[in-house]
Queue: 4 jobs
Job 1
Amino acid sequence: MQRVPTVANLSGTIALRTHDGRYMKVFNTDGGLQFRDRTLDDNARFIVVKDDYGRVSLKGPNGKTVNLYYSSNVMCSEETGIWFEVAYLGGPWIHLIISGKYQGVGSTIRYLSSDRGHQTFSGSLDVREKEDPSCWFLVENLD
């Protein structure tokens, strides 16, 4: 039985799940990310790194950081990555928000989605201009 926190806690090692129980995982050597299945394994473990402004970055099990490509594709393939703002939605649920200096984002905000990104990127996650159910994530603390 999975333990669901009453409040999202983004610290230490976490896993992110969708509303239907699928985990975000690094699934290939290129740092591809997908919400593929409902099994918690080592490929679903991400270390939370925080900055002085309350933003978080996620370091994947491959040692790389989650990063944004061309404003709409997210992978886990760089040494330095994207800083997400966190919107706490109540209980264990969050949005991961992209804003600021990233290519193609400008002054708008974007939401990380659990849906697949563009085929060109061999396993990326999509980014949405407006939040929808694919942008809701449950935080599971692993340590």
Note: The CA atoms of residues 68 and 74 lie 5 Å apart.
Job 2
Amino acid sequence: MAMQHGIKLTLYLISSYFGDLVAKVCECLLRRGTLSFANIVRFTKLNKMKVKDALLVRIQHNWVPAFAIQQAGGFGEAPKVLTQYIVLFDKIIHHVRFPKFLSIVSGELGKECEEMLEGLLQHGRLSLNQ
């Protein structure tokens, strides 16, 4: 887990680029660790749609992966599958290096490659059409 100053830097970066709502969801995950969607909603005290939107933005940038955990059901019940979310601290900190990445790509591969990389860095995963 990240240290206190690392969390503050990460939250500053997130709120600068994506706003306070996304930062609040990421703060909850940074401070509490792996959580289910319901627990994120409960701890952030935000409505479900806002939390969902904030998570989708982070998932698209590969900062918050989702994974499933299977829990045993009660007597006579089928097992339950819970989706959990965790924030990847190192991926967020790499955001600081984006200008350096763009500079290197521009110098070695040209302006067109720089523009494509910039689109990927700003929007996360993109399809060829986007």
Note: Residues 75 and 81 are 16 Å apart (CA to CA).
Job 3
Amino acid sequence: MASGLAADKGEGIPPGKPMTAEQHLLDKGAEMMQSFKPIKQMNQHATTFSLYAHDLSRQIETHHYLTRLNQDVVQCAVYDTDDSHGRLIGVQYIISDRIFETLPLEEQKLWHSLEHEIKSGLWVNPRVPEMVVKPELENLAKCYGKFWCTWQVDRGDRLPMGPPSLMVSPQPLNLGMVSPALVEKRDVKFGISTESLRGRGWTLKGWPLSTRMLTTGNGTARASPSSWSPPR
């Protein structure tokens, strides 16, 4: 790893000088005069967990800021935290099952089902009542995501280093299960209980968990839990 830019065990902030008063003034002026139309289309914040496809033992808390392009496609800016110093660590695209089924088989391997993280309570919209967000959750549970991580902050990188890494959602089996300690840390911060959300009191019509594909890693359209493997 590059000296001073990776494997930093301190604050993990990017290298560089503090912002000057002149820079703050310039930024504030630009903010007042520009529109930021694409950013203003972000209308949801969700916190969940993601695993590196090449190493499922590496699991991180992620914060997704969603923009819905239409009823079948969502794009997300992904941060490592919802604090003001949050770092943009990647991008996720979400598509409906209808769109997913039209993709070539090789492309499907890059996408993962969102069903488990939704139904197990891992995907949470902080401070939004469950009944308010229920229709959106029911919709997302039938969707697939493709998440590329560009900044591996979990290993201490102070800058985005190397090529992007493909990420996958937690799964209810084997190495795909998210660390309970990681979930507890998130729950304490937001004052929520993932355990109480598990199952969420509703089911998806026509989509029993046992027959839906857990991930596309093995390249099949409907993989059983026992055949699940991470994308290569």
Note: The longest helix spans residues 21-33.
Job 4
Amino acid sequence: MRASNHIIGLVNFLTFLISIPILGGGIWLSSRANNTDCLKFLQWPLIVIGASIMVISLAGFAGACYRNTILMRFYLFVMFFVLVALLGFIIFAYAVTDKGSGRSVEPGLPGI
């Protein structure tokens, strides 16, 4: 049982370290002087994703290190919803980018 707790703790610590550049990237995008619409659109999802991954990994790390079942159940519950959301996003991205489902948009055409 100890080895599995150490492995879960190590994986969550590495995930925590990976979330730092994600969060930093979102903050860096928000501080840029030439904020275009694309940068404004990307900054808040990056900040939210980075912060949520950080909180989830800290809960898993603390739950594994201190053998706290409440934190481990929270970690399991939240990770389940993260994986379901990721699966939904993958299906959505595939449906949107599938060949034949998109159309070329050219300026000057009716309806644009």
Note: The chain has a mean pLDDT of 80.
